[in-house]
Amino acid sequence: MIDLHGFGDQLLQGAIVTLELAMCSLFVGLVLGLLGASAKLSSFKVLRWIAHGYTTIIRGIPELLTVLIIYFGATSVLMAVAGLFGYDEYIEVGAFAAGVTALGLTFGAYATEVFRGALQSIPKGQHEAATALGMGPIRKFYRIILPQVWRIALPGLGNLFLVLLKDTALVSVVGLDDIMRKANIAVSSTKEAFLFYLVAAFMYLALTIISMVFVSYLEKRASRGLTRG
Amino acid sequence: MDFSVVVEYFPRLLEGAWVSIQLVMISIVLGGVFALPIALARISPVAWIRAIPFAYIFFFRGTPLLVQIFLVYYGASQFEVVRESVLWPILREPFWCAIIAFTLNTSAYTAEIFRGAIQAIPPGEVEACKVIGMTKTQMYRRVLLPRAFGIVLPAYGNEIILMLKGSALASTITILDLTGMARTIIARTYTPMEIFLAAGAIYLVISIVIIAIFRQIEQRQNRYLGTLSIKVPDKG
Of the four, A177, B127, B164, B169, which is 20 to 30 A from B101 by CA? Predict the structure, then answer.
């Protein structure tokens, strides 16, 4: 029972893949979110439109469909592009790459809204003070704006990460060897569906709890400037 | 890309969309019914009564919906007892398994929304009702419930959209909902991009319609606020 018919270590390997997928998508998503928020607050109309279209479309389409579109679509798009350069072998996009792209896009769309709210809540005086001290726009962003945005955005981003962690299960549908697919494999050979899906559920629950603890640690760390007055 | 396949198979996609809408409507209604007692138990002053809905909500919000669907559809049939029970004709059908999983899932989220709304009503309003001399029933019917309903609306609208997006997972247990239908058509025509994009567009239209409906109800329900806008805490 304890070694789950020998599938215990398989499930743990799956957990590592799930975590890798979540971390890579988080990175892509954070970058996209910051870019999206900057575009939404930009003074160029075209950039605002693009960002608005991006968030509306991604947030209105099921995550499963996004994963499927990227997985099957990326192959045909890449092959069409490669075809232009005279390369006509079959190109396959891996499940992991497709998963990172799809989940990163999804996380980025929601993170755009979180970052936008945080950026807007930084008082104008902070920008002016930084400029008055002679900081250039890049230094101002890294030293003054970003640390404050990070603190305000963290609770929202933490929630989004928990959603992302659960969405990683969808990538098993296109064949990534994560917790979910390892559980599927175990079920098909042992026929004990309830046991293995319950174990999978508790593994996700454990990952959720660990992430929650980590996020609250980060939140405390990010707001240490406030508590000292 | 060749979008003539979309035109050809559009009626089939609409058939799938109707299945998706049915899944969402049935689970939202059932989920709402279950959510109210769960929310009330969640704010009970007795600690062990509070603990049960807490664990329930934690489990269903902390695990992927896909796992929950598989637990109901594949998991339940592992047990001889279930296969011989009177419930088997229901648990055998993928459609009803999806409904069960979605209902359990959405009731956990909705319970948290209800709890937030009940706790968001200022105590002054309850006191005011008592001062005017309303009975408890009058207070609930005339003040507290309409008020909670108004507070709940935006978050509830979000929950329905999330449910619509979650309903795509029904396709993994052989249900021909919008996503399932799209995958079936693709297996025949081998045009993944065209059909998936068309399905995505249909989902988008359904979400936009839901958002518009909720904006209408919200305006009607909160019309006493005039031009004031109230802030409702996001769920999560």
Answer: A177
Which helix (H) or strand (E) covers residue A86, if one does?
none
A209 in B contact zone (CB under 8 Å): yes
Residue A56 lies in a domain: yes
| Cβ atoms < 10 Å from Cβ of B136 | 10
- If one counts the domains in chain A, the total is 1
Task: Enumerate the residues of chain A whose CB falls inside 8 A of the CB of residue B182.
Answer: 65
Residue in A closest to B76 by C-alpha: A194
Contact between B193 and A64 using a beta-carbon 8 Å cutoff: no
Q: What CA–CA distance (Å, rounded) separates B71 from B64?
A: 11
One DSSP character per residue, A22-68 reads: HHHHHHHHHHHHHHHHHHHTSS-HHHHHHHHHHHHHHHHS-HHHHHH
Cβ <8 Å between B64 and A169: yes
Domain B4-225 has CATH 1.10.3720.10: yes
Assembly ipTM: 0.88
**Contact in structure between B210 and B164 (CB atoms under 8 Å):** yes
pLDDT in tens, B104-153: 999 999 999 988 888 888 888 889 999 999 998 888 888 887 888 888 88
Continuous H helices in A43-145: 45-60, 63-84, 95-120, 124-132, 137-140
Q: Nearest-CA residue of chain B relative to A179?
A: B67
Q: Which pTM value belongs to this model?
A: 0.88
The reply to whether A229 falls in a domain is no
For A107, the domain range is: 4-224
Could you tell me the sign of the dihedral formed by the alpha carbons of A186, A187, A193, A197, in that order? positive
Question: For a pLDDT cut of 90, what percent of chain A falls above it?
Answer: 68
* Residue at token pair 């637990």: B71
Q: Is A76 exposed, middle or buried (0-12, 13-18, 19+ CB in 10 A)?
A: middle
Q: Which two tokens stand for residue A134?
A: 């002679």
Which CATH number goes with the domain that contains A38?
Answer: 1.10.3720.10
| CB-based contact B71 A194, cutoff 8 Å | yes
* Both tokens assigned to A48: 């605002």
A149 occurs within a structural domain: yes
Residue A88 CB contacts under 8 Å (≥ 6 apart), including other chains = A79, A82
A111 within a domain of the structure (yes/no): yes
| Chain-chain contact of B179 with A204 (C-beta, under 8 angstroms) | no
Q: Cα separation of B85 and B102, whole Å?
A: 22
The residues, any chain, with a CB within 8 Å of residue A66's CB and separated by 6 or more, are A58, A102, A105, A106
